[in-house]
Amino acid sequence: MRKWAAGLGEVHERFMHRFARSEPRESALAYMRGLIAPLERKNGWTLAEEAGHAAPDRMHRLLNRCDWNPDEVLGDVRDYVVEHLGDPEAVLIVDDTGFLKKGTRSAGVQRQYSGTAGARISISAR
């Protein structure tokens, strides 16, 4: 994970100009660090706590209110990935791996496919 964390700075430099203010730039880097952190759950609260914030407000503001174009950021990240990982001989394999839900009160509790379990599982609410 340390190697990935070190590389985040390079990725961040590619798109930080897409944010007009320093606070969203900092939040974007903290958000990415949280996504690769070994957290059991990754949501606004856990990502905020990982970043050292007392509440998820900054993360929520980044995703919901800040003025930035996700397609432009995606393009910047895609360019970085192609430059560093691209190979004409490479093959991309996409796996929609999911996670088994814990408990009986999770949102969307119903029969669903889980790539992790490799089959349809039945989850019922009480």
Counted beta strands: 2
Q: Major β-sheet, in short?
A: 2 strands, antiparallel
Approximately how much beta-strand content do the residues carry?
under 5%
SSE pattern: HHHHHEE
Count of runs of 4 or more consecutive helical residues: 5
Overall geometry comes to globular
Strand order of the largest sheet: 1-2
Rg calc? 18 Å
Model regions low in confidence, pLDDT < 50 over at least 5 residues: 121-126
Task: Report, as a whole number of angstroms, the end-to-end distance.
Answer: 39 Å
Give an account of the 3D structure.
A two-stranded antiparallel ribbon has the order 1-2. It contains 5 helices and 2 strands; from the N terminus they run H-H-H-H-H-E-E. Strand 1 (112-114) and strand 2 form a beta hairpin. The protein has helices at 2-15, 22-36, 44-51, 57-64, 70-85; strands spanning 112-114, 119-121. 48% of the residues lie in helices and 5% in strands. Residues 121-126 have low confidence and may be disordered. Helix 2 packs across helix 4. The chain is mainly alpha-helical and 126 residues long. 8% of the residues are buried.
